């Protein structure tokens, strides 16, 4: 089996279970403006394309709603204050990251989450395990565009030759393809195997420790 030198991870649904805090902030904002709230399962299917798309899917009539920007601002402010309320790494993630670092591997995280939130969450939960953490910002296209992956490799000082991308969604499968990287799809995240297979995933793992086999 091929051995990689660089591991580029998605964040939400791959390294961290953030669903509860995202849902709480979405529903806080919706309640604030007397809009219908959503179940945790609804939010599970709304995430994956960045927080603005999450809110577009959550707010009635999406961005066409005249109060959309207000609701989005409220969500953002609430989430930045409450992103650590229930969020935690999936079981086995810290041990897996430690195993990679002990082998001298380079690790990056690329996310469609707010740039600041991405860096703060990585710093809080993973410390020195993550060499580079990149989130959504104005001057860089969000996934599935390859921009964040390319930026991560530039900051790491590596090429795509011995790099692999790991994620939990169809967006991640497309991001890996657009970046010219092989993709490992995890089965503990926000999407199931059948959905991932429908969107082109072909390599799967069920436990974080399996990443150490690549």
TrEMBL record:
E.C. code: 3.1.3.18
InterPro entries in the cross-refs: HAD-like_hydrolase_sf, HAD-like_sf, HAD-SF_hydro_IA, HAD_2, HAD_sf, PGP-like_dom2
GO molecular function: hydrolase activity
UniProt cross-references to Gene3D superfamilies, sorted A to Z: HAD superfamily/HAD-like, Putative phosphatase, domain 2
Top class in the EC scheme: hydrolase
Organism superkingdom: Bacteria
UniProt keyword list: Hydrolase
Record bears the keyword Mitochondrion: no
Pathway: Organic acid metabolism; glycolate biosynthesis; glycolate from 2-phosphoglycolate: step 1/1
Catalyzed chemical reaction(s): 2-phosphoglycolate + H2O = glycolate + phosphate
NCBIfam families recorded: HAD-SF-IA-v1 (TIGR01549)
Protein family per UniProt: Belongs to the HAD-like hydrolase superfamily. CbbY/CbbZ/Gph/YieH family.
Protein's recorded name: phosphoglycolate phosphatase
């Amino acid at each position: 089996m091929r051995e990689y030198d660089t591991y580029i991870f998605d964040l939400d649904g791959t390294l961290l279970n953030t669903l509860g805090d995202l849902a709480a902030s979405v529903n806080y904002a919706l309640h604030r403006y007397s809009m219908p709230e959503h179940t945790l399962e609804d939010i599970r299917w709304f995430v994956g394309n960045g927080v603005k798309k999450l809110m577009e899917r959550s707010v009635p009539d999406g961005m066409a709603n005249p109060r959309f920007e207000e609701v989005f601002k409220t969500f953002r402010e609430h989430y930045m204050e409450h992103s650590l309320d229930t969020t935690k790494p999936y079981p086995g993630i810290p041990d897996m990251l430690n195993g990679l670092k002990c082998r001298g591997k380079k690790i990056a995280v690329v996310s469609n989450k707010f740039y600041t939130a991405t860096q703060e969450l990585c710093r809080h939960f993973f410390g020195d395990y993550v060499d580079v953490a990149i989130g959504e910002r104005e001057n860089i296209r969000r996934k599935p565009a390859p921009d964040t992956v390319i930026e991560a490799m530039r900051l790491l000082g590596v090429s795509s030759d011995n790099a692999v991308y790991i994620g939990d969604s169809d967006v991640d499968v497309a991001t890996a393809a657009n970046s010219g990287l092989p993709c490992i799809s995890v089965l503990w995240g926000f999407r199931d195997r059948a959905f991932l297979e429908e969107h082109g995933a072909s390599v799967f793992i069920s436990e974080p420790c399996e990443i150490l086999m690549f």
